[in-house]
UniProtKB/TrEMBL annotation:
BP GO terms, sorted: endocytosis; phospholipid translocation; retrograde vesicle-mediated transport, Golgi to endoplasmic reticulum
Provenance organism: Denticeps clupeoides
Cited NCBIfam families: ATPase-Plipid (TIGR01652), ATPase_P-type (TIGR01494)
Residue numbers spanned by region Disordered: 483-521
Main location: Golgi
Boundaries of every P-type ATPase C-terminal domain copy: 886-1124
Protein name: Phospholipid-transporting ATPase
Reactions performed catalytically: ATP + H2O + phospholipidSide 1 = ADP + phosphate + phospholipidSide 2
Keyword flag Cytoplasm: no
Subcellular location: Golgi apparatus, trans-Golgi network membrane; Membrane
Length: 1132
């Protein structure tokens, strides 16, 4: 950077000329440098800073237009935010001092340790649900119209015709919300009532999770959930360390090793925790689950004992103890814990279809008001015209039918029932029944890796020694080599470690004397490679404790404990466990390990003991881990290392096969590790140890100095082997991802795992296709680095992006819009080392910048925030528990089920709801058109054409069943929808429900309403008293025929619904004839039964119906013949 950014002179008044360097933290022109988003503007990477033009930052002109169109929204928003901030001032989070076992010494009041997922309480339930319902224009409109009927001068019909549908909708909604709220309350109560053992001066007491306070000493047993964030003080494990499962926090099923505070672990007994005066100083509560800074201080010793605390000394809430019993002091509770800070509040999700219908109803309302004004204007604004205007508004209120909400809500429930009853996706549960249509509109799918795409089951697949490669079918050769080597070692004398001490030195001498020129035999190379894999790891074998074993075990019990059936392995990575399990199958078994030594058992039963001198753990920077061991039998010291090929290639001796074989394994989707060793003399090791210890004690640049000392040892290492481990994918992941890609869905993988692992899974799952390049975003920490790296990425075309969470955070801080714009152009994006909060943040970014619908799928507690933030959340019930599936809108049992869920059910739900919504609006508009024609014929009188009962019957018994049967309609068969996923791509454009299709339905409604009313008035002029019966009969027939016109695939229930509705109408004509007069115009006029059986009535009604429907049938036929839709081509 200093070579690129030039120094500039700064002139100041009354001062000599000075020079300064432009840094990231100083006020430089970098703040005003935009990213160049055009291809032509790019120069070489070195001159990026010079070629970028200075940003022209100017204030927008804000005048009256701005205030009228968008300024009022901004002003209202600011006022609401200020009001909320005033009413709900959030307490500032601060660092704290926590005394062991003394909650009363706490200086501040801390939140209660409760889990709360409820949306409402007893007082806010009714107002909250009503607000959620009436914030939509549709429902608010129905409420105002219904309330207007209490005013006598505005009353048009019966009250029940307005209040019954509205009351039905509200009752169903409130009952559904109440059931969900009770379920959430029970789940919270169960979690908050879990009992834990608290250590007090008087001994152990049982307390509820909700009663735990900051400063309490809590005992957590094996397989018990940790109730609050704690510092790890003691454990029953002799090593002073334990393993915890963090799957509900970071989504990874690897067990994490935690270390107890040395000062408290050394105390003779638990009760001694109260005999010392000690406190923990902890930093303020943060979101980051991977870091912690604090100090432990003991005051009653001379001098005071100070220990620094890091992430390895913490026990975060919602994790589970996997080994031993632990004791910790609580430092954060309730909403200040890491797990709660990383969990976002559940939002009320509203489907895009509902929002689109809400916009259409606003347009209909404007049309309704305009029509009413026209009617009053044609009256000449006579008399109380304002009252007449409102009466006309109520009279035309059927333009926006309340049955729209009823039909759509019932349709959503039907779709949910169909999804849960689908035998092809067993175990699927619909938890949010309000958004099934969202499954048919998705553009972005954000998926977790571990447990979602993969099973998190590692299997050893390949061992490569340079000249020979072993796969799953030739592993028995390795076993025979190990067995023969073990036999030859034990053949010279007695058993046990004595034999190895006599056999191994001779072998070692012969190797040294032979020198590097003599090629080792394949058998010895295999033996060394397997031994290196069995030694270079952080795996600990664990044996279940048996009844009656107390204190020290004797030899017989120890032998019994070493039985293979009783052994399990614990490690911080499943890769490590897979490697150790493989060496066990080959014959070299890890039988015990502590902080200073480990033991291996050979096929002949020998126990080989190795002392652990140093361990260099894996870090994301070094990409490798190492161990220095001394063999007890021979005293020889060896450094073993394993790591990623990019890290190991430069430190092993020259070879011509490593790079090529790594590429071959990566293409097979295997995770590769390079294993190497280096023999050290006693003098070499002593020199290294002194320099290493000195580097660890340095105050400044400790990490760099330690790394430099270790690197001095990592030179010219002997390359032993290359291993390939497969992370087993979930069933049918590859075809499912291909199906989704062909459907136009862009897939982003968000994982908390390492970059190398995430990249490998992206390749093996075919998330990134074979012919696609991968751009690995370099680690960036400053604005300048992010700027250069984004410009470098901009030059790439059609390549997948892999980026880490830290780099992502830097990019979003300075170049949010530019980064999202570039990332959205990628065919696939992989974000690794993502925290739960970052996952949710990425979802929100896509929603804001693209306005497209997003779907998140995961299986762990760390995916809950992402699932809740997405427009549609899908949870998988897996090894990581049910937390994700319970928080999701839809729950499935396997990832492959998402294909059918989206392609079949999502597509059908959207197309059916679009057709249903538009048809219900058509049903309202056609009757409002007839009302307008009727009023205009009768001197613009605000008199209803049909009585209240007929209006209720029209929306329910006469037409509801055929219209609702549209939820059974489908354009193509499910098999066809899965075979041609490209059909799904059309739905994202929203063409099934748009202003264009809406205007077509408006024109159809106006045409048919006009024909029906004018036809009735023209053809039945002599029988004018029967105009209601005539027009209403033609209207019902037209609606039934229009349903038949709209249906694409007939179902037997549709036919039943058509004939049932027709039968109901004919029955009401016969038995409810008093409702078919023309209202107040001819009060007391009843329908003559003889009249409706005449030929004149029948042919005239048939003629009107034919004129209203036949042209539409002809147009539909011509359109299907000359411009057929894509689905009809497939059907034929």
């Amino acid at each position: 950077l200093p070579d690129v950014v030039q120094l500039r002179p700064v002139r100041t008044v009354h001062c000599t000329e000075k020079f300064y360097f432009i840094g990231d933290d100083e006020a430089s022109n970098l703040d005003e440098m935009p990213l160049m988003m055009s291809e032509e503007a790019f120069e070489s990477a070195e001159s990026d800073y010079h070629t970028l033009p200075r940003a022209r930052v100017g204030q927008r002109q804000r005048g009256l237009c701005w205030l009228l169109f968008c300024g009022w929204k901004v002003l209202c928003g600011c006022c609401c935010d200020c009001l909320l901030r005033t009413c709900r001032k959030r307490k500032e989070l601060k660092a704290r001092t926590v005394w062991l076992g003394c909650p009363e010494k706490s200086e501040e009041k801390h939140p209660r340790n409760i889990i709360k997922n409820q949306k409402y309480n007893v007082f806010t339930f009714v107002p909250g649900v009503l607000y959620q319902q009436f914030k939509f224009f549709l429902n608010l409109y129905f409420l105002v119209v219904a309330c207007s009927q209490f005013v006598p001068s505005l009353k048009i019909g019966f009250l029940y015709t307005y209040w019954a549908p509205l009351g039905f909708v509200l009752t169903v909604t409130m009952m559904r919300e109440a059931v969900d709220e009770v379920r959430r309350y029970k789940r919270d109560k169960e979690m908050n009532s879990q009992l834990y053992t608290k250590l007090t001066m008087r001994g152990k007491v049982q307390v509820k999770s909700s009663e735990i306070q900051v400063g309490d000493l809590i005992i957590v047993e094996k397989n018990q959930r940790i109730p609050a964030d704690m510092i790890f003080l003691r454990t029953t494990e002799k090593t002073g360390a334990c393993f915890i499962r963090t799957d509900q926090l970071d989504g990874e099923t690897d067990w994490k090793l935690k270390v107890a505070v040395a000062c408290t672990q050394r105390l003779p007994a638990i009760v001694d925790l109260f005999s010392i005066s000690a406190y923990v100083h902890a930093q303020k509560p943060l979101l980051d689950i991977h870091s912690f800074e604090g100090n432990f201080t003991r005051e009653d010793s001379d001098p005071h004992v100070h220990e620094s605390l890091s992430i390895e000394n913490t026990l975060w809430a919602s994790t589970v103890v996997a080994s031993g019993t632990v004791i910790g002091v609580v430092i954060y509770t309730g909403k200040e814990t890491r797990s709660v800070l990383n969990t976002s509040n559940a939002k009320n999700k509203v489907g895009l279809l509902d929002l689109e219908l809400n916009r259409l109803t606003k347009a209909l309302f404007v049309a309704q008001v305009v029509l009413s004004v026209v009617m009053v204007a044609l009256q000449g604004f006579l008399g109380p015209w304002f009252r007449n205007l409102f009466r006309f508004v109520v009279l035309f209120s059927y333009i926006i039918p309340i049955s729209l909400r009823v039909n759509l809500d019932m349709g959503k429930s039907a779709y949910g029932w169909m999804i849960m009853k689908d035998e092809n996706i067993p175990g699927t549960v619909v938890r949010t029944s309000t958004i099934p249509e969202e499954l048919g509109r998705l553009v972005y799918l954000l998926t977790d890796k571990t447990g979602t795409l993969t099973q998190n089951e590692m299997v050893f697949r390949r061992l490569h020694l340079g000249t020979v490669s072993y796969g799953t079918d030739t592993m028995d050769e390795i076993q025979s080599h190990i067995a023969s080597a073990s036999q030859s070692n034990s053949g010279g004398g007695g058993g046990g470690s004595t034999t190895s001490s006599t056999a191994t030195p001779s072998q070692g001498k012969s190797q040294h004397s032979a020198g590097p020129k003599v090629r080792k035999s394949v058998s010895s190379r295999i033996n060394e490679a397997v031994k290196a894999i069995a030694l270079c790891h952080n795996v600990t074998p664990v044996y279940e404790s048996r009844a009656g074993i107390n204190g020290e075990t004797d030899a017989a019990e120890a032998d019994q404990d070493f039985s293979d059936d009783n052994r399990t392995y614990q490690a911080s990575s499943p890769d490590e466990v897979a490697l150790v399990r493989w060496t066990e199958r080959m014959g070299l078994t890890l039988v015990s390990r502590d902080l200073t030594s480990l033991q291996l058992k050979t096929p002949s039963g020998q126990i080989l003991t190795y002392f652990i001198l140093q361990i260099f753990p894996f870090t994301s920077e070094s990409k490798r881990m190492g161990i220095i061991v001394r063999e007890e039998a021979t005293g020889s010291i060896t450094l073993y290392m394993k790591g990623a090929d990019v890290a190991m290639a430069s430190i092993v001796q020259y070879n011509d096969w490593l790079e090529e074989e790594c590429g071959n394994m990566a293409r097979e989707g295997l995770r590769t590790l390079v294993v190497a060793k280096k023999s050290l003399s006693e003098e070499q090791y002593q020199d290294f140890e002194s320099r290493y210890n000195q580097a660890k004690l340095s105050i400044h640049d400790r990490t760099l100095k330690v790394a430099a000392v270790v690197e001095s040892l990592e030179r010219e290492m002997e390359l032993l082997c290359l291993t390939g481990v497969e992370d087993k994918l979930q069933a049918d992941v590859r075809p499912t991802l291909e199906l989704l890609r062909n459907a136009g869905i862009k897939i982003w993988m968000l994982t908390g795992d390492k970059l190398e692992t995430a990249t490998c899974i992206a390749k093996s799952s075919h998330l990134v296709s074979r012919n696609q390049d991968i751009h690995v975003f370099k680690p960036v920490s400053s604005r300048g680095e992010a700027h250069l790296e984004l410009n470098a990425f901009r030059r790439k075309h059609e390549c997948a992006l892999v980026i880490s969470g830290d780099s992502l955070e830097v990019c979003l801080r300075y170049y949010e819009h530019e980064f999202v714009e570039l990332a959205c152009q990628c065919p696939a994006v992989v974000c690794c080392r993502c925290s739960p909060t970052q996952k949710a943040q990425i979802v929100r970014l896509l929603q804001q910048h693209t306005s497209n619908r997003t779907c998140a799928i995961g299986d762990g507690g760390n995916d809950v925030s992402m699932i809740q933030a997405a427009d549609c959340g899908i949870g998988i019930e897996g090894k990581e528990g049910k937390q994700a599936s319970l928080a999701a809108d839809f729950s499935i049992t396997q990832f492959k089920h998402i294909g059918r869920l989206l392609m079949v059910h999502g597509r059908n739900s959207y197309k059916r709801s679009a057709a249903l919504g538009q048809f219900v609006m058509h049903r309202g508009m056609i009757i409002s058109t007839m009302q307008a024609v009727f009023s205009s014929m009768f001197y613009f009188a605000s008199v209803p054409l049909y009585q209240g009962f007929l209006m209720v019957g029209y929306a329910t018994v006469y037409t509801m069943f055929p219209v609702f049967s549209l939820v059974l309609d489908q354009d193509v068969k499910p098999e066809m929808a899965l075979l041609y996923p490209e059909l799904y791509k059309d739905l994202t454009k929203g063409r099934s429900l748009s202003f264009k299709t809406f205007l077509i339905w408006v024109l159809i409604s106006v045409y048919q309403g006009g024909i029906l009313m004018y036809g009735a008035l023209l053809l039945f002029e002599s029988e004018f008293v029967h105009v209601v019966a005539i027009s209403f009969t033609a209207l019902i027939l037209t609606e039934l025929l229009m349903v038949a016109l709209t249906v694409r695939t007939w179902h037997w229930l549709m036919v039943v619904a058509e004939f049932f509705s027709l039968a109901c109408y004919l029955a009401s004509l016969a038995f409810l004839n008093e409702y078919f007069g023309i209202g107040r115009v001819s009060l007391g006029a009843f329908l003559d039964l003889g009249f409706i059986t005449t030929k004149a009535f029948l042919w005239k009604v048939s003629a009107i119906t034919m004129v209203s429907c036949l042209p539409l049938y002809i147009i539909k036929y011509l359109k299907r013949k000359f411009s057929p839709p894509s689905y009809s081509k497939l059907s034929s």
